[in-house]
Design brief:
The structure holds two protein chains of two kinds. By secondary structure, chain A is α+β, with helices and mostly antiparallel strands. Helices cover 29% and strands 16% of the residues of chain A. Chain A has one domain (1-258): Ferric Hydroxamate Uptake Protein, Chain A, domain 1 (Beta Complex), CATH 2.170.130. By secondary structure, chain B is mostly helical. Chain B folds into two domains: 3-103 and 193-245, no CATH class; 105-177, no CATH class. Chain B is flat.
């Protein structure tokens, strides 16, 4: 009930604050984004995914892509392993058990090259500007086929939007067919200047972030002309993006409020560790005193 | 500390522990339970045995995961579920060690008194039986009778059961003699409800509500999948759950 009300609130807030200015692409809007490249059987999906926190896990990025672009996905092993993407792979809980050498390999774009991730997607962090890749195939760290290289600016920048129109936001047509992605119905409008609706899932964070941004001081980046009449944090996205579609990362980081009200892992984790060790010390001292 | 304040702490901490599998919330919560238990304990026994049970829960849950298909993720997930169960056990143990069954019983409203009596008797039966068994074993050993093996079991069990019956009869007689169940009850020494108890109860209710809200909204990285997120707001709620430990001037 509460959840639904908040979702409605978030959607309403998104509708009330349209992205003004025809120059802004839908993807290069406010907030952190990451690119997700999914490739199998010659078909490649390159999705620009809006993050709902400064850092999310690699698994959560896939969930977000599912929410925002309708990317079909299934996790196994207690939600830790990626079993199916874009209609390819099994949806069973133990997806590696079949004697099938094919699996979804996890790559991360580092220094312009794909790196086979040594850890699972549940233990990696995706931040603004990161590119994650998933490729279907067989083999190990060196022999597994790589997804096609797609720089972040290519996927999330304005030019990339214009150049590869069909590849984005295609709903998986299922069965792993290598039909062109453009056939799927677009999950979100991609035209420049389109109204962006806040992703309905995880409404609270969206709402909190929006509120926080609205109350935050002006962007320290400086010359961002606020759109006339536009209100609230969503209007921030109306600022011009840098040339080449690469958004300045620091400016978004520095924007107070953002998602900072929820804390991110380093500070929170340290606070948690300090808290537990302090309490343990207290417990030990009390136990010794009364013994 | 008033039993209601203690009860509200136990309920809020237990709720928070049951809701999360994030190790960064479970660790401070478990430590808080240990600290509360060891600083407010009237009797150290329950806390120790519950801590043992908690360690066993983690080990068992992880070992169970080894039976199925093993991966690092599935093992970690199992260990975290075990840790959640362990923290719940620690909270229950701390409450058990710190609470006074008699005072709890007196808190029950009049019409539930019979039920509360039955519950508190049931709860106190295990330690009393263990005590009686130890006494009987001691006596048998002094007499040079065997105390181990299943042959010795009847010789042990009969006196233990007999003691239990006798104690029940004694309790019933003493309650009868004190006029139990006749008219409204009065208290010779009323339990004081002070500002500290109110503060603790309020803080714990707020902390538990924080965790409930995070669960309902799916925020703050309350699931293990979001272990990367540790929300400072939820850590603050955890801080509220340490309120029984806050220093308070003595009257």
């Amino acid at each position: 009930m509460l959840r639904r009300a908040l979702a409605a609130l978030a959607v309403a807030a998104g509708l009330l604050a349209p992205v003004a200015g025809p120059a802004s692409a839908a993807c290069a809007g406010d907030g952190p984004h990451a690119a997700l490249v999914v490739s199998h059987d010659g078909r490649t999906l390159a999705l620009c995914v809006a993050l709902d926190a400064e850092r999310v896990t690699g698994l959560h990025l896939i969930e977000l892509a599912g929410e925002q672009h309708g990317l079909d996905h299934a996790f196994g092993y207690g939600g830790q392993a990626v079993c199916r993407l874009d209609g390819v792979g099994t949806a069973s809980e133990t997806c590696f058990e079949e004697d099938d050498p094919f699996y979804w390999a996890y790559f991360r774009l580092e220094g312009g090259r794909w790196t086979y991730s040594p850890v699972g997607a549940g233990s990696t962090f995706v931040e603004d500007g990161d590119v994650e890749g998933w490729a279907w195939g067989a083999g190990g760290a060196s022999s597994h086929p790589r997804p096609p290289l797609r720089p972040f600016a290519d996927v999330c920048g304005e030019e990339g939007q214009a150049r590869t129109p069909g590849g984005e936001s295609g709903r998986a047509s299922g069965g792993g067919s290598s039909s062109p992605a453009g056939g799927g119905e677009p999950a979100a409008p991609r035209e420049p200047g389109a109204i962006r609706v806040a992703p309905p899932a995880r409404p609270s964070r969206e709402a909190v972030a929006g509120r926080g941004e609205a109350a935050s001081p002006p962007d320290p980046r400086g010359p961002v002309p606020a759109a006339p009449g536009a209100r609230g944090g969503r209007a921030r996205g109306s600022g011009p993006t840098d040339e080449g579609g690469v958004r300045p990362r620091t400016g978004i980081r520095a924007a107070a409020g953002g998602d900072g009200s929820w804390g991110t892992w380093p500070a929170g984790a340290w606070a948690s560790l300090v808290m537990s060790s302090g309490l343990l010390l207290l417990a030990a001292r009390r136990a010794r005193r009364s013994a | 500390m008033h039993q209601v304040a203690l009860l509200s702490w136990a309920m809020a901490a237990g709720l928070a522990a049951a809701l999360t599998t994030n190790p960064f919330y479970l660790a401070p919560l478990g430590a808080a339970a240990l600290a509360v238990g060891s600083s407010l304990a009237r009797d150290r026994g329950p806390l120790r045995s519950f801590a043992l049970a908690a360690a066993l829960a983690v080990a068992l849950r992880t070992a169970l995961a080894l039976l199925g298909p093993v991966s690092r993720g599935s093992l970690a997930a199992a260990a975290l579920e075990g840790a959640r169960l362990a923290v719940v056990l620690l909270v229950v143990g701390a409450f058990n060690a710190a609470s006074d069954p008699g005072a709890l019983l007196r808190l029950a409203p009049g019409r539930w008194h019979e039920l509360a009596l039955a519950v508190s008797l049931a709860l106190s039966i295990a330690p009393r039986t263990a005590e009686a068994a130890a006494r009987v074993r001691e006596a048998q050993r002094l007499r040079g009778l065997p105390t181990s093996g299943w042959r010795a079991l009847p010789a042990l069990a009969v006196p233990v059961l007999e003691t239990g019956m006798e104690e029940a009869v004694t309790l019933a007689e003493s309650m009868d003699a004190r006029g139990h169940g006749s008219g409204p009850r009065t208290r010779y020494r009323p339990e004081p409800w002070g500002p500290r108890d109110a503060l603790v109860a309020l803080a714990c209710a707020a902390g538990g509500a924080g965790f409930l809200a995070a669960e309902l909204l799916g925020a703050g990285g309350i699931d293990a999948a979001g272990a990367g997120h540790v929300s400072l707001a939820l850590l603050g709620a955890l801080g509220l759950l340490t309120s029984p430990l806050w220093p308070w001037p003595r009257r």
